[in-house]
Each structure stands twice: as C-alpha cells, then as structure tokens.
Amino acid sequence: GAGVSQSPSNKVTEKGKDVELRCDPISGHTALYWYRQRLGQGLEFLIYFQGNSAPDKSGLPSDRFSAERTGESVSTLTIQRTQQEDSAVYLCASSLGGTSGSRDTQYFGPGTRLTVL
Amino acid sequence: AQKVTQAQTEISVVEKEDVTLDCVYETRDTTYYLFWYKQPPSGELVFLIRRNSFDEQNEISGRYSWNFQKSTSSFNFTITASQVVDSAVYFCALSAGGTSYGKLTFGQGTILTVHP
C-alpha cells in the first residue's frame, strides 16, 4: 500500500514568511508524528497526534510553530514568520497508534526540505 | 529522560568488509523499545528492526545482525559483507515504556560509506 507522503518536497522561502508543510499518513494509522532534522543531526521530536488530538506538543521550538490534523488523516505543520534557524528537513511519521504504545513502529515520509533565506 | 548515543560519526569501509555500528542508550524505564533506521541519500527513513527490552536474543536478517546487551545498554548493528548499496546514514532510536505512545529519541546517526 501507499506509504507516508509529504508535500512539498522542497520549499524555499524568505525570512519572515509563513510556510505550511503537509503530511498524508498511511491509511488506518491513527498516530502521527512530526520531527525535525537539522543538517548533520539526528531527528528531534516536534509533536504527536493521536487521532485529531495532540497530547504532546512538547517539542515545538516556539509559538511560531503549530500543527493540526483533520479527519484523523492529513496533518499540516505551520511555521509563522520563518527564521533562518528553521531551515531543516521536516519529517512526518505515522504508526498504528491506539493501544500500541511505545512498541509502535513508525513509518516515515520522505520529508520536506525547508530553506529560509 | 531518554538518550541515545552513536559514537561513530562516520565509518568508511571497502565492499565485502564487515562493519559494526555502535549504539548506547539511557533510560530509567524497564520497558522500552529500540529501533534502527536507515536513511539512504534519498532521505526517507527506512525501518530496519524493533527490539523490546525483555528480549535479549540476537537477531539476524540476511547480512544484517543486531546484538542487544542490557548489561551494557547497547544495541549494536553489524552488516556482514558490506555492499555499496549499504551506504547511508543509520540511526538508532529509543522509545520508552512510560508513555502511551512511541515518541522516538534518536542518536545523531552514523554515516556509512562503502567503497567499491
């Protein structure tokens, strides 16, 4: 079946502009995660959705970052007033969720490479 | 707090050599899960293996094998007879059992380059 998809694959924006990144999870996966990967670094957790709710937003770096999920499917990560330090690859992952807990295996999308000039 | 350390930033080998990627983790939870992911140049993370904290049996899958040792908090990954297609960044990750979901803590990754 189809994997996790993300769009756009690349986004170049000017400092101060807002951007929206989209994630389409694997069908039937109720859990969805956003991570950020800075150049040469590991992945940093941003936010977790179970269904349309976000019980853990602890990784969002500032109030310029927000995310929503609708229909227990598509999620959008929005970055307002982008800064150069926001430049990174933003990765989305989905998993079965529910009662699977920490044993859940996450499947990742290809990421969106964001460059803020 | 959880922590994963991959001490090797970069490894370079010649094809057919065996190579081991080290991973050391820290957690106070007694139930946890360890993962390895591969990130080829295309950028998409590919799931390789999941191991739970109660199962210390080593696992082999083709040329890949994993050695889990709770006594040293390590979960090392060995590629036997490496191939050029194994060139990628490899990440070790940890998901702790104290939560109801699987937030992953990643290591910094090891860049593996296999030369022909």
Descriptive overview:
The complex is a heterodimer of chains A (117) and B (116). Helix content of chain A is 0%, strand content 49%. Chain A is built from no helices and 11 strands. The radius of gyration of chain A is 13 Å and the shape is globular. In chain A, strands 2, 4, 5, 6, 9, 10 and 11 form a 7-stranded mixed β-sheet that branches. Chain A is mainly β. Chain A has strands at 5-7, 10-13, 19-24, 31-37, 43-50, 53-56, 65-69, 75-79, 88-95, 107-108, 112-116. The model of chain A has no long low-confidence stretch (mean pLDDT 92). Chain B has 116 residues and is mostly beta strands. Chain B is built from no helices and 12 strands. In chain B, strands 2, 5, 6, 10, 11 and 12 form a 6-stranded mixed β-sheet that branches. In chain B, strand 5 and strand 6 form a beta hairpin. Chain B is globular and about 45 Å long. The termini of chain B are far apart. In chain B, 35% of the residues are buried. The model of chain B has no long low-confidence stretch (mean pLDDT 91). The interface between A and B is medium-sized, with 31 and 31 residues.
